[in-house]
């Protein structure tokens, strides 16, 4: 079963491609225009951004604009993403300069929810955001991070940008309503704060970029994540950050190095169920941003990516020791979301009072919870259950999830 994109995506991509052919700019000129526009929005000069930060984003831009598979909407989406990260860096540098004391404040005992995609990480994350002592970043904050005590006009602008992004995503890919419901004012993945991750490869295959990511040392990236969290914390009382992304499995060593007192909550589900669900979502996204993807190739690509990421994360976990990890079985989580979250809260030292339990019950009823209507077929992606489980054999031997 294929998750289809909106009817207008194909005609719009074709029209934009014709226009682009008439006014093609070099990737270098295109990137310079993006950087200049980001600087204008933030009221500063593009040269103010760290040169290494700019060079890495220029590299991503070049990979996108020289890849024949990327469609016009894909190029525009990546251009917007690159401009967003440049503007965010300028805003962060300005906020740190204004309040160096807040910029030096440690991010204490953060909670990171990780696990294979489609294994309940979103549900677990939103449940753990319920205690009043916890703070999960909202989507609009992640897209344009800044001080929470900024002026009303700036906060309105940042919220509006988040709502626009959600509207665009749901308009082009209506199936996201069942796959991964989006709301600008709901907790979302902190991957949006990282300029570089395999998340970009959900929109397009980008093999050269993927190879570059595999060679990259992500220590500085997670340090940058910490800087943004400090600014988002603002001057108010300290609350414990609760963060989430399956892609943290790819760089768990860098994460634990940047956040030495972090607790990792790891959700577990049968990889044979996970992979088909994930490929269905990626196929829907790439249907907007690329010229299409062969389902069997898609299955092979992500089976290789996620089995390698899990193997790498398991090695890091073994070296770090079990005390920093809390395991959650998908079957238990979906059967009793609030009860499972209470057990996790007890393990990580969080208070789960009456108001928190009420919020957890609301999360369990939210679309995309344990009763999501997302439908998919493993056969479409060549993901025979035995083959998938063989690729994840060490993981299954350690955790044995078969839900």
UniProtKB/TrEMBL annotation:
GO-annotated molecular function: transferase activity
Superkingdom assignment: Bacteria
Name of protein: Sulfotransferase family protein
Native organism taxonomy: Bacteria, Bacillati, Actinomycetota, Actinomycetes, Streptosporangiales
Record keyword Ion transport present: no
Assigned keywords, A-Z: Transferase
């Amino acid at each position: 079963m294929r998750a289809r994109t909106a009817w207008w995506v194909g005609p719009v991509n074709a029209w934009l491609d014709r226009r682009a052919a008439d006014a093609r700019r070099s990737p270098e000129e295109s990137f310079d225009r993006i950087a200049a526009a980001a600087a204008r929005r933030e009221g500063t000069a593009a040269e103010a951004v760290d040169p290494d930060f700019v060079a890495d984003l220029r590299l991503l831009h070049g990979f996108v604009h020289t890849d024949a598979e990327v469609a016009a909407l894909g190029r525009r989406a990546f251009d917007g993403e690159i401009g967003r990260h440049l503007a965010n860096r300028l805003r962060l540098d300005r906020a740190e300069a204004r309040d160096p004391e807040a910029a030096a404040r440690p991010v204490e005992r953060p909670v990171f929810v990780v696990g294979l995609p489609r294994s309940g990480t979103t549900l677990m994350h939103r449940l753990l955001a319920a205690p009043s002592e916890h703070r999960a970043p909202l989507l609009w904050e992640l897209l344009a991070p800044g001080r929470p005590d900024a002026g009303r006009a700036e906060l309105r602008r940042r919220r509006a940008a988040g709502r626009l992004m959600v509207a665009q995503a749901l308009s082009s890919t209506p199936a996201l309503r069942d796959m991964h419901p989006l709301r600008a004012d709901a907790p979302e993945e902190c991957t949006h704060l990282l300029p570089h991750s395999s998340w970009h490869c959900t929109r397009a295959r980008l093999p050269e970029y993927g190879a570059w990511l595999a060679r990259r040392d992500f220590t500085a990236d997670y340090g940058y994540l910490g800087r943004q969290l400090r600014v988002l914390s603002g001057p108010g009382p300290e609350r414990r950050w609760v963060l989430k992304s399956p892609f943290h499995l790819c760089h768990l060593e860098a994460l634990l190095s940047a956040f030495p007192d972090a607790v990792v909550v790891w959700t577990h589900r049968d990889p044979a169920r996970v992979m088909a669900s994930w490929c269905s979502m990626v196929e829907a996204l790439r249907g907007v941003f690329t010229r299409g993807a062969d389902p069997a190739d898609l299955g092979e690509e992500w089976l290789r990516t996620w089995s390698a990421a899990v193997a790498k994360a398991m090695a890091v976990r073994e070296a770090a020791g079990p005390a920093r990890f809390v395991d959650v079985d998908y079957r238990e989580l979906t059967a009793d979301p609030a009860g499972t979250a209470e057990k996790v809260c007890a393990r990580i030292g969080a208070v789960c009072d009456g108001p928190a339990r009420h919020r957890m019950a609301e999360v369990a009823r939210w679309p995309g919870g344990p009763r999501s209507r997302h439908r998919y077929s493993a056969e479409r992606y060549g993901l025979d259950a035995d083959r998938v489980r063989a690729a994840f054999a060490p993981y299954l031997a350690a955790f044995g999830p078969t839900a």
